[in-house]
Every structure is written in structure tokens, then in C-alpha cells.
Design brief:
about 110 residues, mainly alpha
């Protein structure tokens, strides 16, 4: 029995479901591979991209899901210190809106 003959005996709903699963697997694999390619090695769990390539390829859909869920490390976020304390920024905003308090106060 040929493999194609076996597929032709499946109901239409099963063929549609199988096609949807194939599309989902391909989309997940492409997303995982593109992310893995663009991500620096320092941001990859296990520190080796080739391990993740093997996992994505050999474990099928679950491999791509594993990579996207636990294979990526978060990028380091640099904090930018504010130029002035919040109170000073508030006073500057008020001065810009209503004029300098020292000039209009008359004191």
C-alpha cells in the first residue's frame, strides 16, 4: 500500500487538520530559526546555538516551542538615569506653562 493511498482514505476533516498542523509546525520552526539566527549567543540558554538547532529539528513542533519558551534569555536593559529629580522636573514644567514663579510672584 502506497502512502498516498492511505491519505486518500482519510476523511476530509482529518486531511484539513493534518494540513493545519503542518502549517503550524512550519511557522513555528521559521519563527524559532529566525529568532535563533538574530539572537547573540550570550542571550541563548545553554550558550550554544547548534544545540537548539538540533532540538528544533529533531523534536519537531515541541522543539520550536521549547526554544521559544525556555531557550531565550532576556536582553539586558540599560537604565537611563533621569536628568533631574521628579520635583525639579515638575517645577520646570509649571514654569514653562505659567511663567517663572520668581518673576510673577512680586516678592
Amino acid at each position: 500500500m502506497n502512502g498516498l493511498e492511505g491519505l486518500s482514505q482519510l476523511p476530509t476533516a482529518a486531511l484539513i487538520g493534518l494540513g493545519a498542523l503542518i502549517v503550524v509546525q512550519l511557522v513555528l520552526d521559521v519563527i524559532a530559526f529566525v529568532d535563533l539566527y538574530k539572537r547573540p549567543v550570550e542571550q541563548v540558554a545553554l550558550g550554544n546555538k547548534w544545540i537548539w538547532v538540533a532540538i528544533i529539528v529533531l523534536v519537531n513542533t515541541i522543539g520550536a516551542i521549547l526554544y521559544l519558551a525556555i531557550g531565550r534569555k532576556a536582553a539586558a536593559v540599560a537604565e537611563v538615569p533621569s536628568a533631574a529629580p521628579v520635583g525639579a522636573r515638575t517645577e520646570n514644567a509649571a514654569d514653562l506653562l505659567y511663567g517663572d514663579a520668581k518673576e510673577t510672584d512680586g516678592r
